[in-house]
Design a protein that fits this description.
heterodimer, A: mainly alpha, MetI-like fold, 70% helix, 3% strand, B: 4-stranded antiparallel sheet, 10 helices, 36% helix
Amino acid sequence: MGRRGRRDRRPGHQRSAVLSQSVPEPAGNVPAGAPVPPDEIKAVPLRHPGRWIAAAIVVVVAATIIRSVVTNERFGWSIVGDYLFSSRILDGLVLTIELTVIAMVIGIVLGTLLAVMRLSANPLVSGGAYVYVWLFRGTPVLVQLLFWNFIAAVYPTISIGIPFTSVEFYDFSANSVITPFVAAMLGLGLNQAAYQAEIVRAGILSVDEGQSEAAQALGMTRMQTMRRIVLPQAMRVIIPPTGNETISMLKTTSLVSVIAVKDLLYAGQLIYAVNYQQIPLLITVSIWYLAVTTVLSIGQYFLERRYGRGFRRNEPETWWQRAWRYAIPRHAKAGGTS
Amino acid sequence: MAARLALRDPAPREGGGHVVSEPMVKAEGVHKRFGRVEVLRGVDLSVDAGTVTCLIGPSGSGKSTLLRCINHLEKIQAGRIWVDGDLVGYRQRGDRLYELKEAEIARKRAQIGMVFQHFNLFGHMTALENVIEAPCRVRKVRRSDAIARARELLERVGLGDRGDAYPSQLSGGQQQRVAIARALAMDPKLMLFDEPTSALDPELVGEVLDVIRGLAATGMTMLVVTHEMGFAREVADQVVFMDEGLIVERGTPSELLANPREARTRDFLGKVL
């Protein structure tokens, strides 16, 4: 190595000597540290007539739709305004958000557990997780909701005790414990866990095996390795689909209206069952779903930034920076910046 | 070396009783299979405390696997390995071997530093966080103490000013030096280097070898799998040539690299030197 390095140095010296002889001028005149700025290209920009035509079409179509929606009396916009902040709709909204949060928490906790189980070396443990995912992913969530709602038909009483013995600590009537809200929670949460398990598993598998090897070589246990090294890096892969799932869950909660849980949609349905203003109330409800979805998307954006740490050389620009750059293209401000 | 081997009782003893001449690493008849492929076919090795051993040989000869068996990242199928007198991965009572619990294996691994070909720095942590992670989590060192020590170590590998950089912001050579600092933070009694410079651009090899060379000068016991023959010649006390899962030849650098006895060693050295 050392010997080769010494041999290499000689031709390099000669080459640089030749270079400085052939172009002595710049080396002599220009002071060090002040490079000559290059002549920037000034050309007539290419025109894009196609873009203008497309933009015109979009504007015309959008204007037509907006005009028809605004001028059509039967949309009942004043009724939308009346009900948007009514207490019944807002109660429904709160319940929808509660249900979304609870179902996602159950889904994420149980899903992570199932994902770790799937990757276990013990075939019974990984097999159990596989069967769970197979069962809950393989049946419609609407069926599962109804199933939990009617669970009292199969198990009239629920008791906590030691299996295969007559020892029982508690015992309650299923009808009093499994209220429609609890059935909705179980139905949505347990179903979500099956999907979340696959998302988390993909995330764990995306982390290079060398990471856990390095952690184990340092004397970390498998639990520590999973919690401190693998899962935080898996988050980068887990967060975007989980954000999707949360938004999807917000809307899936509307299914619980079939088991008479007074969520956002059901609140609207109860109102239009009396006043027959179906469309205005569905619009009211949709506005709220859209509003919450928007908030969730923004939250997801910041979570992704947080867990992307260390995987880029530079922090990515924020969305407003990107919007700014898009609005004012670089050549427009090229004069001032270096 | 033959004399020292003769002094040792080849039969394993209970517990970790130390003998003055105890080698830091001792392997006897080590066999390792991956499925049907026999990667190690009866390897005997002895590394004295405070010495540097370089493992050389063609790729696929089992050098890296042997290294990984020493800290039990791989389980061996036959033979015994001792580190500092302790059997690796098992406890022996009478004729029976008992598998160690995960926590016990982890405790032993914590005393052996390992540096990987692809660095394997934790990507979500800064250089400093990489170095303090194991002392804080495994040794339960106070965070402020761990940070002070980590800064010292980063300084020592020439990266005192890059503690806040993420691995993706460091060059390969810098990453590997952080990886060395990370291993040293656990105060290991043995360092294993698995081709530490093979994934580096040629101009970055030197800075990593300099750090390893400096470590050798402090008397650290080291086992280095390497393709850098110049480095082996300069730093090693013992060079071991492996081929097809067996140790073909071993000796001092001047013996083995300058005057190999075996035709296979001559053949290999002829290709790489």
